[in-house]
Amino acid sequence: MASTGLTRFGRREEPLVELLAEAGTRALDGIGRPPVDGFFVGAMAAGPLAGVENLTGQVAHRLGLEGTAGWRVEAASATGAAVFHAAALAVASGQFRRVLAVAGEKMTAVPTPDAARVLAESLHPLEQAAGATMPALAAIVTQRYAAQYGIPSSVFDAVSVLARTAAARNPFAQFQRPVTAEEVADSRPVATPLRLLHCSAISDGAAAAVVERGEGDATVLGLGQGFDQLLVSDRESLTSFRATRVAARRAYEMARLTRKEVAFAELHDAFAPFLPIALEDVGVCGPGEAGGWITPEAIGPSGRFPVNPSGGLLGRGHPVGASGLAQVVELARQLSGTAETTQLPRPVGVGLALSIGGLGTHNFVTMLGHAGR
User: Fold this and answer.
1) End-to-end distance of the chain based on CA atoms, in angstroms?
2) Which is the CATH superfamily of the domain at 3-111+203-211?
């Protein structure tokens, strides 16, 4: 990866196209603006949430990319990861030499109930007809996971505390103040047992990356994607996401690496319980063991396996189309030593990002590392 760009996440006044242009401009400026010959742009719901259609043409016009080839990519809340995978595969195919990937979302322009309704449209039609929402289904997953493995709610509280602590070091993050476990436990109930501070917030923002041929500190090592049943009740398990396990296996196989060779990760934590599930699904620990990993000593910046130095979705914010690409941007910056205030205290050689689409329906795993590994 040649260059990256981010906007600050949170409530932004700028429209979606301007946010995408801000991130894209930063990524292009980072390479001195040699021409790109392709670009991929992504947003989960640009029309319903931001009132924008023909997003590819709008972004091409705003960034002066009319002479390139471009496509829009969408994969629900994993859109940003899908955009990056599309860009990386386009370069790997040999058809393109240098590609801009940019993804974002403008969510705060509509009332929160309307945003929740749009997000729920990625669920199975039967779930929508029953009035299901993302938090409601995430709560069912949480109940089953906690009951099966005896996980206390304090573990989920600790996930949110770690996320907000990390976000306070990230100037691009939506939330700049740490929280205590007591604040998490006392926050407003959303869907039992989930509380407000267990859930990622409505947010605006964008991320971008320039992908080109060659090798460097943040070379693409492995890409993987996996699907699961759209209807949650049809799945073989509610305490693990098969789509993550498949995507991780494919990424490890492509990279010819094992989990032991991964130094840190950015994991999708739209809901706090998704983090321990993700730790298990990508192979950090076995089923039911992640509860013991939710400590600073295990997954904090100085821990044995740092997770979400950016603050993750819970701390950095979750503009749904942007988050997957923002995770990859954090990997690249950590690997190149340019993460500044979120830089991990010891050098890292391989990073992994997990992005979840829908309620674990189609998930993406991305592995970056130093060339020559």
Assistant:
1) 15
2) Thiolase/Chalcone synthase (3.40.47.10)
